[in-house]
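Q: Can someone sanity-check these two? First one:
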Amino acid sequence: MARDLTVSIDAMGGDAGPAIVVAALARSVLRHPAVRFILHGDEAELKPLLARRSKLAEKVAIQHTTERVRMEEKPSLALRRGRNTSMWRAIESVKKKEAEVAVSAGNTGALMAMSMFQLGTLEGISRPAIAALWPTKRGQSVVLDVGANVVVTAEQLVDFAVMGEAFARAILGLERPTVGILNVGSEDVKGNDSVKGAAHILRNNSSLPIEFAGFVEGDDIAEGTVDVVVTDGFTGNVALKTAEGTAKLVTHFLRSALRRSFLGRLGGFFAGGALNILRRKLDPRASNGGIFLGLDGVVVKSHGGTDELGFASALDMAIAMVRAGVVAKIIDDRRGIHSVEPEAAAS
């Protein structure tokens, strides 16, 4: 009989540390009763937290280490000195097949460096990307890269398209997701060499299992114009942080307006149900979890400043990734690619 799915967790990562992780686990075991967890971290901190939650006793094992990766630490330094850290060991459990997926709220650069070093990349993938689920008018879209690769080539953008499309099929349940490349305009003549070259490859390679919709602009992300938005990590991260900031600003303005007068408070009372729906849709915790696509294994990055609700969402995503077989789908799609050279500047 096959063992239960196991999630390996860096319990010392993130701003709040083990308390948030254990609180999130208490939620996760109710949602996923067949899943087990390995916590990598300081046993002296973790045991008292687990002792307060009896339902976790049979589902959680502790792998003791007192070392952790600091949030401000350079990835190169963390990679050199970090073999005994909770982050390293969380990934190592995946490498050793003790767990199917690793989750951390720690230093993003260090997590990517350690993941690449220990797990390696899938055949034909030169650089992994971080994918995020993005709320849209139509539901959700996948956006990648949102932070791993500041500068990219045309070929890497094509890899991102393949990975994002496979992810959208597996997680969003779309039979044939549409893919667009984020650009400064929808016209073919606009953009830099990388986006033009990637568009040329996607348009002219008939073996690619992708429905390419061409270039999309920034406002198309929220519209849900395409199911997968492909971009470099610099642009994607700026877009992600801008969207998160805008959601907080809208929430702030709305709350201020409703509290400003008696009529505003009265209106807020009668519109309570609708406002709760809006709040849930704008809450970044609901879609917390950056997915490292392109690795020979599954790693999910939780936002470092999230609370137990956000970390529980990252655990949900990690479990869904494994059950949907996202890595296998990327491998299958990547095998269908035959080299198409981008034209010079994809004129």
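And here is the second, same format, sequence then tokens:
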Amino acid sequence: MIREITFQKGIAPQASGSVLVSFGKTQVLCAASIEEGVPRWMKEQGVTGGWLTAEYSMLPYSTSPRKSRDSTRGKIDGRSTEIQRLIGRSLRAGIDLELLGTRTLWVDCDVLQADGGTRTAAITGASVAIALACNRLIEEGKLTKSPVLRQIAAVSVGVVDSRVLLDLDYLEDRDAEVDLNLVMTGDLEFIELQASGEESVFGNEQLVEMLDYGRKGIRSLIAKQSEVLGI
């Protein structure tokens, strides 16, 4: 079963759209900010429309023992870099960047408490934050139509003690024989699928079962997103 999922809107008032998303004990603050203008590389390459970029970080007190800040180490760790790239490309699949106009949509995902599934919670929460930010553009008269093409959600699936489990917490993820992260649209179309055997292997039958669990989880998450957005 999927863990208890909650969304708290407006948690960061200075952002254009924000939500505190909880997957069980995992809590991620997702904020979407809109900046007029686009990165220089887009202008240099003649790329039209807008851009969406994501940043991800785990706050020092989100884990035990305490995690050092990236600024203290002087660099972003490889895991955070990989996750924020995943978040960015996943969310861009849900946005009409041409319709966004010459604007940059910044998505910040800060993990307040980590108990497994921080990347999937970040993607799911950020999708809501983006929808709220785009609604604000319409309210301000800067757009007549939302550039949001589709809702995006993500969930983890794994095999623990030869059993398929959905939305793994930290202990389950630590002991998982197979780990899979699934990013999908509200229409259950794939955006990204990351699967790996953790010192193990898995066959087609097990993969089909994991995907079936994942789809059920995505349906539940999309329904909760729709409820909080009133759509």
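A (reply): Looked at the second one. The first strand starts at residue 5 and ends at 9. The mean pLDDT is 95.
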